[in-house]
Amino acid sequence: MASCIFMKKNNWSKIVQTFSRRSGIYIVFFVSIFLLISVLTAVQPAYRFSSDMLSNWTKEMDSTIFYHLITMENRAYEQSFPEGEAEIPKLSGLFFELTSNVKPTDPRSLFGNEIPGFAIFDNQLLMASDNDFTHFPIESNPPLEEVLRDREAVLTEEEEAEEDTEEEIENEQTTGDRDVVFIYNTHNRESFLPHLPNETNPDAAMHGEINITKVSDRLAEGLERKGIGTQVDKTDIGELLNELGMGYNQSYEASRDVVEEAVAGNQEIQYMFDLHRDALRRDKTTQTIEGEDYAKILFVIGTGHPDYENNLKVATELHALIEEAYPGMSRGVFQKDGSSGNGIYNQDLAENALLIEFGGVDNTMEELYRSADALAEVFSEYYWDAEAVQSNQ
Fold first, then answer.
1. Per the record, which residues fall in region Disordered (predicted)?
2. Which pLDDT tens digit goes with each residue over 3-18?
3. In 3-state terms, what secondary structure has residue 324?
């Protein structure tokens, strides 16, 4: 009897010890949570976690991690994995990526912060036909005096004749007197080496007349033929910079005033296009389609402001439509923050604002005009389809 009572007391003692130990763990856990919440709510707003911080943090993770988490709840999703890729990534590799910001499969993550000038590759090229990092856009940044220097420039007889052609509206639908598209050129003097006979330096491919503005005019003509009223700004930003005593790297500050004035003066503007010329060479900026050469285009979206998603949506939709009609003409959609450029590009001033790179330093006006006509065709279909949807709502 005594031994039985002793065993009961011993068991009860163990239960009490176990409960006390677990209670201590629970108390420490809840106190830690309380202290963590207190710290997070007491610190200054600049140091608190935000949705952007969490988004940027999770963006560094392999996206398949989240899909694997779903498959843990529903095994049927495993069938959608490509053969040989159904194994969940190792947690050690994931921890290494999150703590070091280095991805073993992406050398940009290591070299981007260590090698000067390599940060240009630490951006996102979306919906591209390939993952060649050398296709990323390169922006010329010469001294302003080099931009304004007089140079000889020529156009072929065929290109001059194309400038003088006037065609009637091809579309039954029109915007009437409303100019719903606004086109401007922040780097309006960006020119093309084939039209500068005495110039061989890509960074010096600049001219006051034979430049990217002619592509803007051609695109506007194409849109007008499709019934889409278009306004083209003629401001010489290079000359404006000189008058204001500003540098070429302040071009977007100068063009911002132009955009703000346009938006304030025309409430009908629905789309804004800032046309540029890339500094990449011909092999990266030219596509042959059915025996004819086209200057490739690239959509650049600045992510340095909170409302870039709508611009990104328009760019990705246009890219898909171009790829369907003119395969290979679009180089994709390039997201660029402020780490290696302006990062906003005045796209915070209105919805549906795009920066479009047309060709490169080695493309001809004939190739550029061809691409401008193609974009006008694709965009007009996109525009009128969107108008039809809105009118039916």
1. 155-175
2. 555 455 556 666 656 6
3. helix
- 292-295 and 286-289 strand pairing: antiparallel
Query: What confidence score (pLDDT) does residue 63 get?
Result: 58
Query: Which comes out higher in pLDDT, residue 71 or 257?
Result: 257
Q: 103-141: per-residue pLDDT in tens?
A: 665 555 555 555 555 555 455 555 555 555 556 666 677
Coil, helix or strand at residue 369: helix
Residue 207: both structure tokens together: 């001219």
CB 234 within 8 A of CB 262: no
Nearest-angstrom CA–CA distance, 120 and 339? 8
3-state secondary structure of 183: strand
Query: 103 - beta bridge partners?
Result: 106
Closest of 124, 100, 99 to residue 301, by C-alpha? 124
Tokens representing 289? Answer: 């389609």
Cβ atoms of residues 370 and 359 within 8 Å = no
Task: Please give the span between the terminal C-alpha atoms of the chain, in angstroms, as a whole number.
Answer: 87
> How many CB atoms are located within 10 Å of the residue 170 CB?
12
